[in-house]
From TrEMBL:
Belongs to the UPF0162 family. It comes from the Bacteria. It comes from Marinifilum caeruleilacunae. InterPro entries: SirB1_N. This is Protein SirB1 N-terminal domain-containing protein. Residues 102-257 form the Protein SirB1 N-terminal domain.
Length: 283
């Protein structure tokens, strides 16, 4: 944008007329994220409190819009990466998140597990190795759902604290597995975050079958279809075939966003809720 036009728009941002202010805000919000350094410089030079407050709102909206577009593109990719999806959700309310430490921790766990893997191992043996490192060596665990916090979905914080809510723990577990070539995915079961180990039945048709199921909250416990059926019946919900099949990675990330909506409402941090709802509809 022409610098003179930008300056003119910013000079009107504190206009007392709501219609004018909203029009200016909308025009500024549609600017690319590369404009933010200029907006921050303008904020620093200004002594007008109202203008600074409104400029902060504009910057936040530009940052959220950028992350939302990234998450939409992520969901449209051929193989959406779970770790990257969780990072984008984190960035939606913490745009200055530094991702290098996150990748460093994930890559360290992956390397440790990879050194123990080989082509002769069965699917169950691979999961046992992953469980050993994830739960015994690195000591990751899920927090009680009765004690919600405003950080237990933040992938960066969870990786450093070694604990988080049941959704993010499942995402990290499955994300590490997938990056190692271990086909672990979520399933569609309502109000539960369980995983499954997928085996290709027919390479030509790309049909897949589930070998077994994994409970990432119970230290990666493995169980079969009969146990899953028992769990479904105990929930008193209609037993649907889709509950036994692998879900797309977008499903787990949507579950993470939905969890955030619930938790932030409980904690009365409602400022973030509209953005989370917007993200949920976009994935």
């Amino acid at each position: 944008m022409n610098e003179n036009k930008l300056t003119a728009l910013l000079s009107l941002l504190d206009d007392p007329t709501p219609e004018i202010y909203k029009r200016i805000e909308n025009e500024l919000t549609n600017l690319p994220i590369s404009i933010i350094p200029q907006l921050e410089d303008y904020w620093l030079d200004s002594k007008n409190t109202i203008l600074q407050e409104r400029l902060e709102q504009v910057i936040n909206k530009i940052q959220f819009s950028h992350v939302k577009k990234e998450l939409i593109n992520w969901g449209k990719s051929e193989s959406p990466n779970l770790i990257e999806g969780a990072i984008l959700v984190n960035k939606s309310y913490n745009p200055n998140l530094i991702t290098e430490p996150i990748r460093k921790v994930i890559d360290k766990i992956k390397k440790d597990v990879w050194l123990e893997l080989n082509n002769q191992l069965t699917a169950l043996e691979k999961i046992k190795i992953l469980n050993h490192f994830f739960y015994n060596i690195y000591n990751y665990q899920a927090l009680s759902p009765n004690q919600p916090t405003n950080w237990d979905s933040d992938i960066g914080t969870v990786l450093s604290q070694k604990q988080g809510n049941y959704v993010i723990i499942s995402i990290i577990y499955a994300g590490i597995a997938q990056e190692l070539g271990i086909p672990v995915y979520g399933i569609h079961l309502t109000d539960s975050v369980l995983l499954c180990y997928v085996d290709k039945v027919d390479e030509s048709s790309k049909k897949e079958d589930v070998l077994f199921y994994i409970n990432p909250i119970d230290r990666g416990k493995v169980f079969g279809r009969a146990e899953l059926q028992f769990l479904i019946e105990s929930k008193k919900i209609v037993n649907r075939p889709k509950y036994y099949k692998a879900a797309e990675n977008t499903s787990l990330i949507k579950r993470l966003v939905k969890h955030n909506i619930s938790v932030y409402k409980k904690l009365k941090l409602t400022t973030y809720v509209p953005n989370f709802k917007d993200l949920y509809k976009s994935i």
